[in-house]
What does this fold into?
Amino acid sequence: MSILESNHLCKIYGSGESEIHACDDVSLSVEDGEFIAIIGTSGSGKSTLLNLLGGLDRPTSGTVTISGKDLFSMSDEELTIFRRRNIGFVFQNYNLVPILNVYENVVLPIELDGSEIDQKYVDHIIHTLGLESKLTAMPNQLSGGQQQRVAIARALAAKPAIILADEPTGNLDSKTGMDVISLLKMTSQEFHQTIVMITHNEEIALMADAMIRMEDGRVEVGEALC
It folds into this structure.
């Protein structure tokens, strides 16, 4: 069953001779529980696509549906609430709140939504990602790899329909980066979590279930990797 679909998605910046088609008629479908990598060089449009898929930006034309809900038929307020409840984000720069400790960062999206914390589930995530000994640590006391683990835990904690990861290894050394991707793959399997990740690194992309190549705002047919 498809959890995420985009249909004829376009994002155009500028006009006339300076018009840039950052996302050019992109239609794709992601199945429930899949781990998909979107690979492309800098400027290929993959970050624009991820922002559109996550409802962080609105398209010039086209649609995105997650769990059957049309993102861009919603008001900005409705979309903000939907994102918080249904989409987990993992960013290259971690985006942890510096004045909150590890545990507070992990449960922050749940508390912002006013929802009850599923403590057993959150504890399982923390254990799976090896963060038990770091719960009271502040972000500036953690290594880059540890901060990214916290970001993954935070993305999982609200039980989102999908996780969108934007170059999650971009600020990490190669070994730590591979460790983080291994954790993403493990959490995809452990929690049956759908993940869409963008990267410029083909070695990283090969760890996903399937890979989609993007160039000049367009995507090529995806290829299964396992």
About this structure: The mean pLDDT is 92. The first strand starts at residue 2 and ends at 13. The chain is about 35% helix and 30% strand. The two ends are 18 Å apart (CA to CA).
